[in-house]
Amino acid sequence: MRPLSGSILSICSVIVLSTAAMAHPHVFVDGGVDFIMSDDSTLEALLVTWVYDEFETLYDLSSRGIDLPADGILTDADRDTIRAAYSVWPDDFDGSAHLTINGEKIDMAWPSDLDVDLIDGRLQLVFRRKLPVPIDLVETAFYESTYFFAFQITNPPTFIGSGVCDALVIPYTADAQSAEAQQNLAMLGREETPGTANVGKLFADRINVTCG
Amino acid sequence: MRIAIAILALLVGLWIIWSGLPTFPEIVNWAAMQQRAFQIDMARAVRAIQVGEAGSWLALMAAAGAYGIVHAAGPGHGKYLIGGMGFASSVSAARMLSLAIVSSLAQAVWAVVLVYGGFWLFQLSAARMTSLAEDWLAPASYLAIGAIGAVLAVRGARILWHRVVPRPRNLWLGVRNDPGCCEHHTVSPAQIAALTTRRDAIALVTSIAMRPCTGAIFLLAIAWQLDIRLAGFFAVLTMGLGTAILTSAVALSTVTMRRFTLFSTGRFGVATLVLPVIQILAGAAILSISLSFLMRALA
User: Which fold has domain A5-211?
Assistant: First the structure.
């Protein structure tokens, strides 16, 4: 039996693409993170899921010249168009997930293996962030920086390839620090980048992982 | 006591000018959450129109109107300009109301012209359209609104100057007995009512309307792509009526606060000095808010 190892995964918003109103965040994304394990303690990749809301979906598809099909099923050509659009990420996109172990940042590969789907009129994107070197899943933290998109964990995390780990989602709760940050963010226009680095981290939903 | 009420009224008036601005993140965040919900309603209504469901037009108009109201509760739509003008000019409530409504509707129509025109004539992409609005039209709007604030403050200062600085006297007859003297030196209430001229009204409406709301741009982009363009047009007009409800509320409440302030100070015989002071304060507030938005937009 392996000793209990605690892991904290915190996931925040962010990317830089589109949407309404002043003040960050601009786009709300539901979704979650699953863990692809090569054995009971080794993390190989993260499987990140984004689900846009119905309006963002309509806008995203419209802006790429795609009519949302009445039957709710994307054609292969539509999928290719969307995949192609999401294969080029803006310079300031940091991958929507950062991974750290004992406070040290672990590099992950750029999003790959992108799957595109329509689920009840909502655009779902699923992609992998592979780890160049598989790691022992010890202490990890995900965060992202600019809070243009607000990311919320709505899908319970699962472990693919291993059954010994447990995950507990801890939703974001407001505190003094995030309230202050929110005040500053409210001042920002759409195209501005927040002055505070990693501000999205303050609004993170977290996942506590225990393996053993 | 009355002077305390007057000061309170003045502060409340200035507060209304600032309300909905990022000074009150709670309002901004609440508005953002509501907008999100109504956007989803709009999306569902758009899909219902696509498949020809009964009542889907009504659903879209309702969602767009509601979106307009909560969207206007957040920053933007020139609320602080409308509020500042309502507070600082001696324009009637009815006229202020019509200015608020006309500027909201003009903004909606301009969004339609820009988006449909841009798609039709120039085959612009939705992303280009949004950046045109945010990178060029928003700063231009801040600049224009700021200029109006500056003009308001300068007018207030000039009126105040004329009132406190002794006028040239006719030594023989005294000012009161010489109807031909000084009339053109004194500033009549009509001149204080800065917005009564057509030129002023057009400047106010244009400064607000030139920046289309991003929510309207998105909805129009969707409507264009899905070929439900008439529905998109009416939905954005309804959205404009929704924003007009909120800007009208701001206009009316600031007109009321101004009356209250003037009424409270009336007994001290200083009322004639109060309005120009309010104009300077409100003009300065409008200018400083615009400049802070402008600097952020250009940074």
Answer: Acetylcholine Binding Protein; Chain: A, (2.70.170)
